[in-house]
Amino acid sequence: MSPRQATALTELLTRGEIDLCVTLREAAEPDLPVLPLYRDRYLCVARKSHPLKTRRISVRQLCAYDHIVVDPTGRSLSGPVDAVLAAAGHKRRVAIAVPSFQVLFELIDSDDIIAFVPERLLRKRRSAVRIFATNLSIPPVDVIAIWHPRLNDDARHKWLLELLAAAARPNR
Q1: Residue 157 to residue 159: CA distance in whole angstroms
Q2: What is the DSSP annotation of 105-147?
Q3: Which of 141, 151, 166 is nearest to 32 (CA)?
Q4: Which CATH superfamily includes the segment(s) 3-39+143-168?
Q5: Tens digit of pLDDT for each residue in 7-32?
Q6: What does the alpha-carbon distance between residue 98 and residue 44 come to, in Å, rounded to a whole number?
Q7: What pLDDT does 41 receive?
Q8: The domain 42-139 belongs to what CATH superfamily?
Q9: The pLDDT of residue 4 is above 60
Q10: Fewest beta carbons less than 10 Å away: which of 133, 142, 165, 171?
Q11: Which of 54-58, 113-117, 127-131, 154-158 is predicted with the least confidence, judged by mean pLDDT?
């Protein structure tokens, strides 16, 4: 989804151009129906050949490198990691923002950048990145499905939501 589309998500749902969107809770308008899918934790990752050789990195080390963030809305270069760092009196350098985690994974191997990604997205990519432990208490990420209320009684829509909820369950 492009930043323009994410910004106009409610409008796209209202017009029927999108029937259902899986997104982060922060990207959704509060008046739309929501199906919580799962909660995940953020992990700090970089490419396998990143110069940091330790498994645990300090906040100073973390802030010494450029970061890549995902922001499907195109509204901000900051997120939950930045709020935690700011509360501790630190700031990271966000070098690039991308619209999706797919793009993030395509770019992360090209430079010594660092990213925070939901752990669930690493299932198939865990061997392709280095995971760093930090002492940051980052709030979890809530992944949700949203739709326009006109679809609430649609049988096909209900079926799709059930399928989506089943796919989002742990151990899949």
Answers
A1: 5
A2: HHHHTTSS-EEEEEGGGGTTTGGGEEEEB-S--PPPEEEEEE-
A3: 151
A4: Periplasmic binding protein-like II (3.40.190.10)
A5: 578 888 989 999 999 888 877 888 89
A6: 17
A7: 93
A8: Periplasmic binding protein-like II (3.40.190.10)
A9: no
A10: 171
A11: 127-131
DSSP state of 96: E
Q: Which residues pair with 36 in a beta bridge?
A: 144
Q: For CATH 3.40.190.10, list the domain ranges present in the chain.
A: 3-39+143-168, 42-139
Q: Which two tokens stand for residue 5?
A: 């589309």
DSSP codes of every residue in 16-80: TS-S-EEEEGGGS-TTS-EEEEEEE-EEEEEETT-S---SB--HHHHHHSEEEEE-TTSS-S--H
Q: How far is CA 161 from CA 6, 25, 54, 140, in A?
A: 20, 16, 42, 23
Residue 6 has pLDDT above 50, yes or no: no
* CA 91/CA 62 separation, integer angstroms: 10
pTM of the model as a whole: 0.79
